[in-house]
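ok trying this again, last paste got cut off
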Amino acid sequence: MGNESRMTRSGWVVRLTGAAVAVATVSGCTGLGGYSNESLFPDDITSVRLEMFDNRSFRRGVEYELSDALAKRIEAETPYKIVSSKDRADSVISGQLLSISESALTIDREVAEPLEKEVVLTAVVNWKNLNTGQLMINNKTVTAAASYSEFQSQDFTYASARAANKLAQKIVEFMENNW
């Protein structure tokens, strides 16, 4: 009797697993049409003009790091080319660096000095298709952070460059087509 109940349970698990796979196949892959070779990015765009991000914070220079990191990521991770002329561009990306904040993550109890700090960048991004006039990214707020430690010979400049690179990565992800 003990072996029969085990076989019944294992048979029930096999049937339940099979049913779950069948439901996932019918609703998932078939409903979406399976895999696709289509680009993750809009096809009607070939070039992007990247305007310098406006910096609304009191710290200067980070807007250059962000614009440079974004240009490099667009060239490396998208099918688009960065162009300087608005007349030759199919689209334009612009934005504002709203805030650059710095805070202590860990503090040494004995001397009350920060052991590790964090830099947080917050920006608003716009991406406009110049052929159609459509805003593909409309005032999207994006935030990225990076930490640093002076004990590892790192400083604010190091962390702000890392945060700008992470922010650029997030912006490129927002450039992808919606599923």
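PB: full thing came through this time. Residues 20-31 have pLDDT under 50 and may be disordered.
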